[in-house]
Write a structure and sequence with these properties.
four-stranded antiparallel sheet; single chain; Outer membrane efflux proteins (OEP); alpha+beta
Amino acid sequence: MSCKNHQSVSIISVQVYGLLLLCLATVTGCAVGPDYRPVQISVPESYAGPVAGSVSSTPDEIRWWTAFDDPMLSSLVERAIYSNLDMKLAASRIRQARAARNIALAGFGPSVNAGGSFQRSQSSLGSFGSSTGGTDGVTSSQFQAGFDAAWELDIFGGVRRSVEAADADLLATVEERRGIFVTLAAEVAVNTIDLRAFQQRTLIARQNLRAQKHNAELTLKRFIGGFIGGLDVANADAQAATTAAEIPLLEASAAQAIYRLSLLIGREPGALISELSETSAIPVASPLVPVGVPSQLLRRRPDIRKAEAEIHAATARIGVATADLFPKVTLYGSAGFQNREFSSWMDWSNRFWSFGPSVSWQVFNTGRTLSNIELMEAFQEQSMISYQQTVLSALQEVDNALIASEKEQDRRNSLEDAVAASRKSVQIATRLYTLGQTDFLNVLLAQRSQYASEEALAQSTRTVSTNLIALYKALGGGWEVVLPEPDEMPARPFLIDE
């Protein structure tokens, strides 16, 4: 082998070994910046509020809304999963986060560009010292086509940290979608119970109105018979008219609850009127909810899990910013064909190629890189504070729901006794008034008490159920539900003419 060939082989060997070393450094090199550590936060061993279930029990109500035994409620929640616009928006954000992660992941690989060019040029002979000094020159053509490649080696882990941050961002969007569903299920349930409560209150008002009209007719007959004065007739008519005036407001509130439910499932306001107009009882579930312990709440609540993922992303971005302090090593290469004649352009003898590494190091940028690191550290600090605030708010929500649920249940038990007593009072007062043994004022007061207690009982029943919903929501109930993949929920623009 000639000395020239031996030298060429040595140069190529050095290049290959150098490339292998650089690739090895890229794979095994340390990623700069802090490594993420799971957040450690102190939480109490038990909730401050009264626990209605076993403290050691693990909350396992995945589809907690089925505990209310209302098929319509369950149907509305299931429909909302696929058609609610906030859920579709959250699915779109997940697709966006996945695309952003793929962009970050692309930083590991090289970029290759293909191109071609044609150039026609003329040079003056006089410019090369022609003795004639003429202006005629040489016309030539240049054909070129090939590839250019560049590969920045991730020696200091900037790309790895970018992918790590993108992974955490993706997890945060997934948890955000779960949180939206937890809130959505609670809103559907609350509005369904509100609708049932308005329907029940309307039914109570109509029943009392019939009784009051009956008493008004009775007083009118007694007035015509000369047994009583006109004051009793006026009082009876006024009470019936007052009750009648409340019914349109209750009907309007029921209709508005239907409109809200329609919006929650992504439909026009009147889409559910025929389906939900029939009066039904207020759904009630068992107050015994296995709430578990606060440490379990950290793994169940989607907003807490999202806040933790945001800390992870902020930590990784400190490494991305820190990587800018170090040199960047890039491998460049190009290959192709060039010739003056088109007919022999692609001949193997007309090939060209080049290869070599390049190192760049930004040694001074007026403190921009260091300031960017401080900026990322501030974002991490803010995400830590937001995480702590989210945990404390979650604990407060659970304790609030626990105390409200227990005390409202006690109130409802007392109101049931009050309704039974007021109904008995109305019966006694009406019988005595018919026998002429008492005046109409006692009947009037008894009827007002009955209507007020029945109205209060209906509202308390509604509050008992909504407090249970608030407790399930505070516990993160429903986050375990397997939601459809984002690609299964295409978001299509709403068209008026559809």
